[in-house]
Amino acid sequence: MGRECAVDDAVKEWKEDVEVKSEVTEIVLVRHGETTWNAAGRIQGQMESELNEVGQKQAVAIAERLGKEAKPIAVYSSDLKRAKDTALMIAKSCFLSGVTEVADLKERHVGSLQGLYWIDGAEKEPEAYSAFFSSQNDLEIPGGGESFDQLCDRSMNALEQIAKKHKGERVIVVTHGGVLRAIYMRITQASSAGKLLNASVNVVHFRDDDEKWIIDSWSDVSHLSSVGFLQRGFDGDARL
Fold first, then answer.
1. Looking at residue 23, what is its pLDDT?
2. Which amino acids are annotated catalytic?
3. How far apart are CA 151 and CA 5, in angstroms?
4. Which of 79, 134, 157, 201 has the most CB atoms at less than 10 Å from its CB?
5. CA-to-CA distance for 63 and 94, rounded, in angstroms?
6. Does 181 fall in a domain?
7. Do the domain assignments include residue 238?
8. How far apart are CA 171 and CA 201, in angstroms?
9. How does pLDDT run across 110-161, given as a tens digit for each residue?
10. Do residues 82 and 33 touch, judged by C-beta distance below 8 A?
């Protein structure tokens, strides 16, 4: 009798575990590979910049890693080229036919800072530079830029739509440092996200039953040991 009860309890626990997992979407968030502008310390925002040689190698490395893990049902990407190029390599490695572009996953528009070098930002565009680093999250960046709240809202809305579409599944999303920072800070309510490295793996879970986000792992670059990465990364919390 005792053995039968133990078996019944084990089956019940297994069923409950399966039901819980079926409600959870796993999203692997990836920052695109290093670009020419990343390496030069130039502000990209929503402007285009190509993956450089290191960035190409990073994209290959992350694609090889993700190709060996649990197969995703889909790969999503920002519509900016540096993200799309990274995403296409990942999709190929995961035996997926293509990438779904989502405009709301693109980098933050940083107004008149776009195209400048970070080292020159404070001098050439002091108002925009100050707005970018401001703790006033509803402050838009002069020159047509977004506020941090606007970035958070569109990033999280896009992510939530993907999560609800793929309930109980695993998907990969390739995006940008600013977007990852927004997602991390919105989920954790932390005041800083620290460095966000190119081609890093960041895993979040979305529980559909209570619409709760959970960070499983963050800023993993273990797959880049042979190709390297920019140590400074993207750090939107620190002035130069």
1. 84
2. 32, 107
3. 53
4. 201
5. 8
6. yes
7. no
8. 12
9. 999 999 999 999 999 999 999 999 999 999 999 999 999 999 999 999 999 9
10. yes
